[in-house]
């Protein structure tokens, strides 16, 4: 990955990513995606792309609902975890590719992209590259569904805070440094994992996210061939407020 991408592979935390993300309700999120398909598409899509799929939790959730799934991620470590949970009959195709310039064999009915993956794109140029590539591989009027951490979250939740995440065999220290002028938040992660003899192995990772304004995302979507459908604050299609932590965004590819 280039320096313009804020995540260099999740080398340190790939093995514990799913445990750390356990509170995320992927089934409710998949329900939201299906509600978007029903609300904004003329018919149910058959083939979907999960962009920046990570360890494949959403990919598997949608495959279990009968969709043909492609999962694209730039991290070989994360995809190794996805492959470890792949079954012979799930039909998922995983591809290790950069989200900014991935290549598929044809178009898909919808692209989903979860867990603020777009925030890891640190320049408007890289956001444009991603939007342009997504547009290229969507069917006419296909949906692009993604989420973003909001300015409110960067300023009040991330800020310059520190967090601890732990489970039975691992401990993750998370220190944030947010520069409001640049919009960049640095995450310094230190992971301790217990090995078989009871000792703990330490690994470290540095990640970055960029805060984007709603107007910027709207402009970049429209510039790259999308019709904005809406910004939502939750899975119920509610309107965002000044204290919304996450935007759920729907856009349609115009061709």
Would you give an account of this structure?
With 255 residues, this protein is α/β, with parallel strands linked by helices. It has seven helices and eleven strands. Strands 3-2-1-4-5-11-10 form a seven-stranded mixed β-sheet, with helices on both faces. A four-stranded antiparallel β-sheet has the order 6-7-8-9. Helix 2 packs across helix 3 (57-63) and helix 5 (124-136) crosses helix 7.
Mean pLDDT: 90
End-to-end distance, in Å? Answer: 30 Å
Oligomer designation:
single chain
- Shape from CA axes? globular
Order of helices and strands: HHEHEHEEHEHEEEEHEE
CATH class of the largest domain: Alpha Beta
Q: Within the largest sheet, what's the order of strands?
A: 3-2-1-4-5-11-10
CATH topology of the largest domain: Rossmann fold
**CATH superfamily of the largest domain, called what?**
Vaccinia Virus protein VP39
- Residues in helix, %: 25-40%
Binned strand content:
25-35%
Tell me about the largest β-sheet. Answer: 7 strands, mixed
**Reported CATH architecture of the largest domain:** 3-Layer(aba) Sandwich
Number of strands: 11
Radius of gyration using CA atoms only:
18 Å
Structural class: alpha/beta
Tally of individual domains: 2
List keywords for this structure.
single chain, 255 residues, alpha/beta, Rossmann fold, N-terminal domain of TfIIb, 7-stranded mixed sheet, 4-stranded antiparallel sheet, 7 helices, 11 strands, 33% strand
């Amino acid at each position: 990955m280039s320096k313009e991408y804020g995540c260099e592979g999740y080398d340190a935390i790939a093995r514990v990513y799913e445990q750390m993300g356990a509170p995320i309700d992927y089934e409710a999120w998949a329900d939201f995606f299906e509600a978007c398909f029903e609300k904004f598409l003329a018919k149910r899509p058959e083939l979907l792309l999960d962009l920046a799929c990570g360890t494949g939790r959403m990919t598997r959730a949608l495959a279990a609902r009968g969709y043909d799934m492609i999962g694209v991620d730039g991290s070989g470590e994360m995809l190794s975890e996805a492959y470890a949970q792949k079954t012979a009959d799930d039909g998922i195709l995983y591809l290790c590719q950069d989200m900014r310039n991935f290549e598929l064999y044809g178009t898909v009915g919808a692209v989903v992209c979860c867990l603020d993956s777009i925030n890891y794109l640190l320049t408007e140029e890289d956001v444009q590259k991603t939007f342009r590539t997504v547009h290229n591989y969507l069917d006419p009027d296909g949906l692009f569904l993604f989420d973003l951490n909001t300015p409110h979250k960067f300023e009040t939740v991330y800020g310059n805070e520190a967090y601890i995440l732990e489970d039975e065999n691992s401990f993750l220290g998370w220190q944030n440094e947010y520069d409001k002028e640049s919009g960049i938040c640095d995450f310094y992660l230190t992971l301790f994992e217990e090995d078989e003899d009871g000792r703990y192995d330490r690994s470290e990772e540095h990640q970055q996210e960029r805060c984007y304004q709603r107007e910027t995302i709207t402009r970049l979507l429209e510039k790259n061939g999308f019709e904005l459908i809406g910004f939502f604050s939750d899975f119920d299609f509610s309107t965002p407020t000044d204290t919304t932590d996450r935007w759920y965004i729907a856009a349609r590819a115009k061709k």
